[in-house]
Every structure is written in structure tokens, then in C-alpha cells.
Design a protein that fits this description.
Strand order of the largest sheet: 3-2-1-4-5-6-7
Radius of gyration: 21 Å
Low-confidence stretches: none
Distance between the termini: 17 Å
Largest sheet: 7 strands, parallel
Number of helices: 11
Strand content: 15-25%
Order of helices and strands: EHEEHEEHEHEEHEHEHEHEHEEHEH
Length: 350
């Protein structure tokens, strides 16, 4: 086995957009024997993934995390290259070249944490301090958008390289976009249930639409076990106002792609994002996009139409007046392999 010179540090990545971006990296590095993968025990690994490099699994406990950090402190040498995929650098391993990929918007802004659970609020506060205290040990920050780069500069006074990467699933011929008249849903919103995702304002807009005798079909991708209170609130709104709103849970990437093919339009009212992966997925599937009129959207796409995400009336008006204009990409996107080439300098004599 080759000497371990490169490290993937992702002990806190196991769900959401972070997982979606991490898994293709793991697949691309499967056959390299000079990699040490530091991964979260809660992460569902790709089927059949058997890395030639070393694998360190970290449990979500303080003891396991500290033990891992001490192991890295011993293993990482001055010539090591460390890619941190979970927004944070290691606690003690500062000898090598440390690259931190910042993907969580909460890490680099001063947004209120109101609406988040007590545990999540305190975790974010702790991680903000961690990132701020150890930022001087980071050789390079990478983000996905100009908006995130500006926030990181403002918060940490550090420059960040903008390198948007995503591996979009190839469109299955069986999922070919069907005619508008055969769609199961008029609108789809692919998002988790954190407060900034703005589901309540979206549902209030759907209530406004009932006053105009308009009942568009909306599909939401929410995990009822992770966000029970929000889902119950939505269910109450649906019953009281006879809304055509459906919640689907626990979807694979293939199932999300199938939902895109069954929908007419992606609606995206989120108040902030570090990347907005569903925006990119929807455009790649040929869907029009009705989105918040915010900079994070324009970083990645040109939406078909935009609205004020803080106003249910604005959202409702946009839905009523929406026409199926095409959305388009506004940025160049790289593949996960190109991202790895950039970070680890593959093909440059290393």
C-alpha cells in the first residue's frame, strides 16, 4: 500500500447537500491507495464501495471525535494534503496543506438561529467559534458561489476560491419529461425543513391562492420524522383550506429525479443557500424555475421568474402570473473529479 499523503476529512457529513457532494468524491477516489477517508458512522456509503485506501469511521460522540482528531495529529505530515468537506478544519492536525470546503451558510453569516432546535443552535454556535478560532491554520477555503465568498471574507477576513462542482445524474430515458398536461404536480419544492427553507411562507401563499379559487398541486420533499411539527402544521393548513399539497419523505436521488419529471415547475422560496443544488438539478431536467429574488439564486441560474420570499402575497402573485419560460445556468459547473484534481493537484506530477 502507498504512503498516505491525502486525506478526506468529513467526520460530520452524513445527510443533505453535504452528503450529495461527498459521495461522488468517494467514488472517484475508490481506487487510490494513498487516501485516508475520515467518515461519519451515520453516512450511508455507496453500494459496493470498497476503497483501496484507509478508512476511519467516526461515531457521533465526543470521545470518538477526540480520538480521531488525535490520530490525525499523529498521521498528518508537512507534505500531507487535507480536504475538509464538513465546513471545519481539524482541531490539531495543522502540519499539512489544509483545504476547507465551506458548504453551510450558517457558518459564515450572522443570521439569527431562531426557529432551530436548542441542540442545533448550540452546535452551530460552537462550530462558528471552531471555524473562527482555527481559520488561520487553513491554507485555502473553497466555496460554491460568489455570495458565499463575500460572506466568508466579511466574517473571517479570508479570501475563498469559488469552485462550483456537482455531478448531475444522467437523465434516465424512462424519466423523459412528459407533456405538461400529464404532469402529476404543478409545482415541486425539493428542500429539508429548516426555518430558512421558508415552507410556512410558501404554504401561506397557497392559502392566498385559494381566495382566487386557484388550487395548484404542490409536492414537498420533507422528512416527517425530522420535521414533525412543520409537517403537522402543513397538514392542518391542507385540511383547513383544501390545498392540493403532498409531502413525500425519505427519497433517493433517483426518486427525486423521478419527481422532477412528474412536475411542471420548481418553486424555490428559500431565504438563503450556500449553493441551491435543486435549482441546478431542475434546470438540468428542463424545468422552469420560480424562485426567490435573491443573490444566491443568480449565482447559479437565471430563473424563469422571481418573487419576494418574505411575502406570501408576492409568491402567490408570481404563481398566478407564471409562464413556462425556460430557466438557464448562469455559472460554469465542474465535476467532482475536476474538483479533486484542483484540490489534490492530480495530474501535476504529484
Amino acid at each position: 500500500m502507498s504512503l498516505i499523503r491525502r486525506f478526506i476529512y468529513a467526520p460530520n457529513v452524513h445527510q443533505g447537500g453535504g452528503k450529495t457532494l461527498l459521495l461522488p468524491l468517494l467514488l472517484n477516489l475508490e481506487n487510490r491507495d494513498d487516501i485516508l477517508f475520515v467518515l461519519d458512522k451515520r453516512l450511508t456509503l455507496p453500494d459496493g464501495w470498497k476503497p483501496k485506501g484507509q478508512l476511519m469511521i467516526v461515531k457521533p460522540s465526543i470521545f470518538s471525535r477526540l480520538f480521531m482528531e488525535l490520530c490525525l495529529w499523529v498521521k498528518i505530515k508537512p507534505e500531507s494534503q487535507l480536504l475538509c468537506m464538513g465546513n471545519l478544519p481539524p482541531l490539531f492536525a495543522w502540519n499539512g496543506k489544509v483545504t476547507v470546503f465551506v458548504q453551510n451558510h450558517y457558518m459564515v453569516n450572522k443570521k439569527s438561529l431562531a426557529g432551530l432546535s436548542f441542540i442545533i443552535r448550540n452546535r452551530i454556535r460552537f462550530e462558528r467559534l471552531w471555524l473562527s478560532f482555527l481559520a488561520s491554520n487553513v491554507n485555502r477555503f473553497i466555496v460554491q458561489t460568489e455570495t458565499m465568498a463575500k460572506l466568508l471574507k466579511k466574517t473571517l477576513d479570508r479570501a475563498a476560491d469559488v469552485f462550483p462542482f456537482v455531478d448531475l445524474m444522467p437523465i434516465n430515458p424512462t424519466m423523459a419529461i412528459c407533456s405538461q398536461t400529464k404532469k402529476q404536480f404543478d409545482f415541486i419544492y425539493v428542500a429539508s425543513g429548516e426555518p430558512h427553507k421558508n415552507h410556512k411562507q410558501l404554504l401561506l401563499a397557497w392559502v392566498e391562492l385559494t381566495k382566487l379559487n386557484y388550487f395548484p398541486r404542490l409536492c414537498l420533499t420533507l422528512d416527517k420524522h425530522l420535521f414533525p411539527e412543520l409537517c403537522e402544521w402543513i397538514d392542518v393548513c391542507v385540511r383547513q383550506h383544501h390545498l392540493q399539497v403532498v409531502i413525500v419523505s425519505n427519497l433517493s436521488q433517483e426518486e427525486v429525479q423521478m419527481l422532477y419529471s412528474k412536475s411542471k415547475v420548481l418553486i424555490y422560496p428559500s431565504k438563503f443557500e450556500s449553493f441551491g443544488l435543486p435549482l441546478i438539478e431542475a434546470v438540468s431536467m428542463g424545468l422552469p424555475v420560480l424562485s426567490a429574488d435573491l443573490s444566491y439564486v443568480y449565482d447559479v441560474i437565471n430563473p424563469s421568474m422571481a418573487f419576494d420570499p418574505l411575502s406570501s402575497e408576492s409568491i402567490a402573485s408570481s404563481v398566478m402570473n407564471f409562464s413556462n419560460n425556460n430557466a438557464s445556468f448562469s455559472a460554469k459547473f465542474y465535476t467532482s473529479q475536476e474538483f479533486l484534481n484542483e484540490v489534490f493537484e492530480f495530474g501535476r506530477g504529484h
